[in-house]
Design goal:
alpha+beta, 3 helices, 45% helix, disordered N terminus
Length: 80
């Protein structure tokens, strides 16, 4: 798993926004089979936040601040 943490809050070593996203993706992926998820959906709070998520591989839906990251993309990020 990314950053070696399986549950709870991000590990103390996590210091950047990118590391926090990586940790969150690993948590999401770990629970995806149980809940049957096919993608992660994010509603960004601003254009700047949307740009941050786009920079981390999320795909923006037209004319909105909603972005998605398909499970297959998350799998490639978290599995060795």
């Amino acid at each position: 798993m990314i950053n070696g943490s399986a549950a709870g809050s991000p590990p103390a070593a996590v210091r950047t926004n990118h590391e926090t996203v990586a940790w969150a993706l690993s948590q999401f992926y770990a629970s995806a089979a149980t809940v049957g998820s096919s993608m992660l959906v994010v509603d960004a709070i601003s254009e700047r936040a949307a740009a941050f998520y786009e920079g981390n591989g999320f795909v923006r839906l037209p004319d909105s601040l909603r972005l998605v990251l398909p499970m297959h993309a998350i799998q490639r990020l978290v599995e060795p």
